[in-house]
UniProtKB/TrEMBL annotation:
Residues 52-277 form the AB hydrolase-1 domain. InterPro entries: AB_hydrolase_1, AB_hydrolase_fold, AB_hydrolase_sf, Epox_hydrolase-like. One of its GO terms (molecular function) is hydrolase activity. It comes from the Bacteria. The keyword Hydrolase applies. It comes from Polaromonas aquatica. Gene3D superfamilies: alpha/beta hydrolase (3.40.50.1820). This is Alpha/beta fold hydrolase. Keywords: Hydrolase. Pfam families: Abhydrolase_1 (PF00561).
Length: 294
């Protein structure tokens, strides 16, 4: 299925992403007037005692936000399910709504078709963290453990607001400079982390964002959900996350509103997209959470 309104000037995914996608099983489940696309990696020797792992990407993203993490997670013996959320990547837009609060039913419907009633460990990055929070609140039996990764919606504002530059009106020769600037402003902490791979993934993803006007990330919508979430809750954030710069101390009091908050891990020398910028340290932290006693 081709996503609606994808510009002809969009770029293909980098070869590394194409190769990883080719190793996955691709499934499509109903969404709006089209389908929601799922990418599923199954280990050669699966550990059936481990819950399936469900990963949600960030806004203006796709499954490729987890590109540098999927191989290690699959190697741990887990089946890894990574959808393109409705309105992003190759997935159709939802029939109604254009923000994190309008996606849970499509996700649950897809999981029913793919996994039946089986519960999952769920990690949500950025916008996907809010989506994961709504899924845990609305379908609690589905989520065994919830891991928030750089999630907004906590009602905490950084010392300096993040300002992104518009780029669609520019010619191709100027767009890459703006994309690099935006990656530095929001996603990545170290200048050297803005590699050709990071740029290629970002550009391919932002062209396929068909969910304009999202506003919930600037509110306390996720914080308001936390008191009603009863599964174990963990959080992993980049120490230099631009969304919380100068306000990191405020995260734990908000997270503690959840009924079973288990801890916050910081990834040093990493910004918002911590699982890409410091993939090794992030993979170690996430696997430590997943391997912990439930």
């Amino acid at each position: 299925m081709s996503p609606q309104s994808t510009p002809q000037t969009s770029r293909q995914l980098p070869h590394l992403a194409q190769a990883l996608a080719a190793a996955a099983a691709r499934h499509e489940t109903p969404c709006g007037t089209g389908s929601m696309v799922w990418h599923v990696w199954t280990p050669e020797v699966a550990n059936d005692a481990l819950a399936p792992l469900l990963l949600f990407h960030g806004g203006s993203g796709s499954w490729t936000h987890w590109l540098r993490n999927i191989p290690a997670l699959v190697a741990s013996g887990r089946s890894v399910y990574v959808p393109d959320l409705p309105g992003f990547g190759d997935s159709a837009r939802p029939a109604q709504g254009r923000d994190a609060d309008s996606l849970s039913e499509y996700i649950e419907q897809g999981l029913q078709l793919l996994l039946g009633e089986r519960s999952c460990d769920v990690a949500g990055f950025s916008f996907g963290g809010m989506v994961a929070g709504f899924l845990a609140a609305q379908f609690p039996a589905r989520v065994a453990r919830l891991i928030l990764v750089g999630a907004p919606g906590m009602g905490i504002k950084p010392e300096q607001p993040v300002r992104l530059q518009a780029w669609r009106h520019l010619g191709p020769e100027l767009q890459d400079a703006v994309h690099r600037s935006n990656l530095a402003a929001l996603m990545l902490y170290k200048p050297e982390a803005i590699t050709e791979l990071a740029l290629g993934l970002h550009v391919a993803n932002v062209w396929r964002d068909r969910m304009p006007g999202r506003r919930l990330a600037r509110t306390d919508v996720l914080a308001a959900l936390l008191p009603g979430i009863r599964c174990p809750l963990y959080a992993i954030y980049g120490r230099e996350d631009a969304l919380y710069r100068g306000r990191m101390d405020g995260l734990v009091p908000v997270l503690q509103q959840a009924g079973d908050f288990r801890g916050l891990t910081f990834i040093e020398a990493a910004g918002h997209w911590a699982q890409f910028e410091q993939a090794g340290a992030f993979n170690e932290a996430l696997l430590a959470v997943l391997d912990a006693a439930p």
